[in-house]
Known about the structure:
Blueprint: H1 2-17, E1 23-24, H2 32-42, E2 54-59, H3 62-71, H4 77-80, E3 83-90, H5 97-106, H6 112-126, H7 131-155, E4 159-163, H8 168-174, E5 181-190, E6 192-194, H9 204-207
Antiparallel strand pairs: 1-6, 2-3, 3-5, 4-5
Helix pairs in contact: 2-7, 5-6
Protein name: NAD(P)H nitroreductase YdgI
InterPro entries: Nitroreductase, Nitroreductase-like
Domain Nitroreductase: 15-191
Amino acid sequence: METNTKQGQDFFEVIKERRSVRHYDPTVRISEQELKDIVTEATLAPSGANLQPWKFIVFNDQAVQEKLLPIANNQRQVVDASAVIAVLGDLESYSYSEKIYAAAVEAGYMTEEIKNTIVANINGVLSQIDSNDLKNSVLIDCGLVSMQLMLVAKARGYDTVPMAGYDTVKFKAEFGISERYVPVMLIAIGKAAQAGHPTVRLPIDDVLFWNGNL
């Protein structure tokens, strides 16, 4: 019981202390293995039909980060942070359905028959879904994984800031990203050189309503 209580306290400390940090110590590096671990833990986030419609590009080479700088409106965190992680939405994530659910069968989570039914249903629905609905679904899932990534980073002692202020057209052109992928956000990650400033939230009664009465 004591262990569970401590884990709960650690979690609440993480969500309360996370800040959007824009000033980073450029001397701090994060190993590729730890960056990989952070992304791996982030991908435990939920997604529709467990299709995991996300891809990540990690920019941790200074020369490449310099290329990203003007695309991101010269925001210094792009080059001062240890890395920048681009989160992309995969509009064809359904192509992984067979691989995902075959792994679920192998793990003993379902039978082959159930897997075949689920995969057929996924492919049937997504072949007919409106493109805007598909994109919105992918953006929701990528928002979930992005928030989880930032919390994982904070739990490991790093700071982050989500960035939407960049030219997605130039970003896709510079890094050869096809129309299959939708840029969702950039996340700078590293050690703060200057703490993120505290912010306020609306009173909960301004945003919380019960049983559909808005």
